[in-house]
């Protein structure tokens, strides 16, 4: 027996590769009991993460497109919920996303809303609508002067020529005349319980960093 131990030198022991990753994966697959209160917190975290990421991408995209071609070019990019990276993140959370407003750029979108949503409450809201679905809402506030180029006061923040271009694309536009700090509408998310639960159990959540610019479309 001693001879066998002596023959097994440290340099002959085969170590598992990626042992740290394997440990993390093992921890993530452990069965954990998640309380309703924890699921609600996870739904809020998921909603905050997704909408903050989409808002960051929107600011970066609009800055780039305004510099490249002005309002005429940037107007087509003001739909962050459709960006490829935001859509991929929504699929990870098993969420559906939309933005609502009582003063939309395209009023035709209001046909998709229930009557009580025509003037959405802009308070941050997280609730469990059913056993399998969570509802998340967060206000959209005009807190970047860049947005005034398309949503500010005509003749002051945006030129009449730029407004004419917007009206050409959206003849029934109502989304102008805003000032800094005003709410413009709200993000609304519907998140599935299994997506929310999965992210509560994960131990390796990566925080979104603005300096990392993914492909958007």
Question: What labels would you give this structure?
Answer:
217 residues, disordered C terminus, single chain, 4-stranded antiparallel β-sheet, 4 strands, alpha+beta, 41% helix
The structural class is: alpha+beta
Largest sheet: 4 strands, antiparallel
H/E series: HHHHEEEHHEH
* Cross-sheet strand order for the largest sheet: 1-4-3-2
Head-to-tail CA distance between termini: 64 Å
* Apparent shape: elongated
Percent of residues in beta strands? Answer: 5-15%
Topology, number of strands:
4
Which runs of at least 5 residues are low in confidence (pLDDT < 50)? Answer: 10-16, 203-217
**What's the Cα radius of gyration?**
24 Å
Helical stretch count?
Answer: 7
The total number of structural domains is 1
Q: Determine the mean pLDDT.
A: 79
Summarize the amount of helix as a percent range: 40-55%
Strand and helix map with partners:
Elements: H1 2-7, H2 19-29, H3 36-74, H4 84-93, E1 95-100, E2 125-128, E3 133-141, H5 148-151, H6 160-169, E4 183-192, H7 193-201
Antiparallel strand pairs: 1-4, 2-3, 3-4
Helix pairs in contact: 3-4, 3-7
What does this structure look like?
This is DUF3365 domain-containing protein. There is one protein chain. By secondary structure, the chain is α+β, with helices and mostly antiparallel strands. The protein has one domain (35-201). The protein has 7 helices and 4 strands, in the order ααααβββααβα. It has a 4-stranded antiparallel sheet. α3 packs antiparallel against α4. It starts with a helix and ends in a 16-residue tail after the last helix. Residues 10-16 and 203-217 have low confidence and may be disordered.
């Amino acid at each position: 027996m001693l001879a066998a131990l002596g023959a097994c030198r440290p340099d002959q022991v085969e170590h598992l590769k990626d042992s740290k990753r394997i440990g993390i994966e093992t921890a993530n697959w452990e069965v954990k009991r998640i309380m309703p209160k924890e699921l609600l917190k996870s739904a809020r975290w998921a909603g905050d993460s997704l909408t903050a990421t989409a808002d960051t991408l929107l600011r970066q995209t609009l800055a780039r497109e305004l510099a490249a071609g002005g309002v005429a070019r940037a107007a087509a990019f003001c739909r962050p919920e459709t960006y490829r990276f935001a859509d991929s993140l929504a699929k990870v959370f098993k969420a559906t996303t939309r933005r609502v407003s009582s003063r939309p750029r395209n009023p035709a979108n209001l046909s998709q809303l229930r009557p009580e949503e025509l003037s959405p409450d802009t308070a941050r809201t997280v609730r469990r609508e059913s056993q399998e679905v969570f509802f998340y809402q967060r206000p959209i506030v005009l807190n970047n002067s860049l947005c005034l180029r398309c949503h500010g006061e005509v003749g002051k923040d945006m030129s009449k020529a730029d407004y004419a271009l917007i009206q050409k694309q959206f003849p029934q536009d109502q989304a102008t005349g805003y000032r800094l700090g005003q709410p413009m509408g709200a993000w609304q998310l519907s998140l599935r319980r299994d997506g929310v639960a999965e992210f509560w159990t994960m131990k390796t959540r990566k925080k979104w960093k603005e300096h990392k610019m993914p492909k958007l479309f």
